Amino acid sequence: MNDFSSIRRDRKLDLAAHAAWLYYIAGNTQDEIAIKLQISRQAAQRMVALAVSERLIKFRLDYPLSNCIALAEALRDRWGLAVCEVVPTTTDPRNGISICAATHLENYLMTRTPLILAFSSGRMLRSVVEQISPMNQPQHKVISIVGNLSHYGHAGRHEVVMHLSDRVGSQAYPVPTPVIATSVEERQLLQTQRSFLTIKALAEQAKATFVGIGQIGWDCPLHRDGFINDAEVTELVEAGAVGEIAGWAYDREGMLIEGATNSRVASVPLEQPAQKLVIGVAGDSERIEAIRAALQGKLINGLITDKESAQKLLATAND
What we know:
- The protein is 46% helix and 13% strand.
- It is α/β, with parallel strands linked by helices.
- The N and C termini lie far apart (61 Å).
């Protein structure tokens, strides 16, 4: 086999592996695979068959996939989820979760019909953006539901919407506020601005909202990234907060905290229970209580997580 033939075969196997991952791991139909890989439906079918014949997917099917599907169905049934995906746990759970979430997000981004998609921020969602294939989809709007500034004006490192817009060419609408204002009066003033009201109205029309889930405690994401200070962490813990979404803190039952920093959150308000599709993208041992509470309080009605987190969530479902 000459070098050119070898390169062609490698590229064909790459495509077959991608098609098989979408079909067996992400649960895409052959029509969806054809759209995402920009090939015909017949070619998508051949690529999946090639992956099977070349044993490219053997390691996926021996055990982890079937177990993950069962866990996803159990989570879906337990909390009445509209969307639930569970991926095998790896050394860094963020990798597998972000790949799966990116695949799910791309299903929306690849559509020709204009859509509005909303996002919080954070490390996990930034990892999702990094997995998105470059494309040009200017018909879509990508909306942030949370600001990206601290009390003191410095920007967080894990903004999502502008980076996603750069990657896919969609229109970007970042929230022009800090995550948490310095006072109730400042929050009220910020949220009466035309730019905020426009984004809030767009977010309410979103086809889907993807959110990260953070725990509350010392060196939690909000604290580590400078959005809340030491005294505010202490205040939230004493108020019973265990988790947060877009800066909104909630307790063990998933109920939004009264007062504390929640009186100054300048993000788009969360619905409780969520009326539209809100997909939590999260997993690791530190965040189990926060994820479970978000499910319990119906702040999210979709979840993309990893196997180990799914097992822990189900084990604590009745606590």
